[in-house]
């Protein structure tokens, strides 16, 4: 499991405060025999529609030596996660 980002707990608390139920903090996506580890999986009930919304959250701090390198990594992760979830 990757280490938690320094903002992980703050993001988790913000999701809870907004009404999201944290399903797991160690969510695992599998693709082609490899495992990826988004930080948080959460869901929120929508009473009017009687169905829930689900999200997967990857927390990034962008505190590395290069903002652009951090951004490229985050966008790359987003694209990979999105493609796996849409498959």
Folded structure, characterized:
The chain has 87 residues and is an alpha+beta fold. It has a domain at 8-61. Helix content is 34%, strand content 28%. It contains 2 helices and 5 strands; from the N terminus they run αβββββα. It has helices at residues 8-17, 67-86; strands spanning 21-24, 29-31, 34-36, 40-46, 51-57. A 3-stranded antiparallel sheet has the order 1-4-5, covered by helices on one side. The protein has a two-stranded antiparallel sheet with strand order 2-3. A hairpin with a 4-residue loop joins strand 4 (40-46) and strand 5. It is globular and about 40 Å long. The chain starts with 7 loop residues before the first helix and ends with a helix. The mean pLDDT is 87.
Q: What's the order of the H and E elements? A: HEEEEEH
Strand order of the largest sheet: 1-4-5
Structural class: alpha+beta
Unreliable spans: none
Q: Cα distance, first to last residue? A: 24 Å
Return the average pLDDT rounded to an integer: 87
Number of helices: 2
Shape: globular
Strand content: 25-35%
How is the main sheet built? Answer: 3 strands, antiparallel
Estimated helix fraction: 25-40%
Number of E strands: 5
Radius of gyration from the alpha-carbon trace, in angstroms: 14 Å
């Amino acid at each position: 499991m990757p280490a938690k980002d320094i903002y992980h707990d703050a993001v988790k608390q913000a999701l809870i405060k907004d009404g999201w139920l944290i399903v797991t903090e160690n969510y695992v996506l599998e693709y082609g025999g490899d495992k990826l580890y988004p930080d948080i999986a959460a869901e929120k009930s929508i009473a009017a529609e009687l169905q829930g919304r689900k999200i997967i959250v990857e927390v990034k701090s962008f505190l590395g030596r290069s903002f652009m390198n951090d951004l490229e990594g985050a966008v790359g992760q987003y694209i990979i996660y999105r493609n796996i979830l849409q498959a």
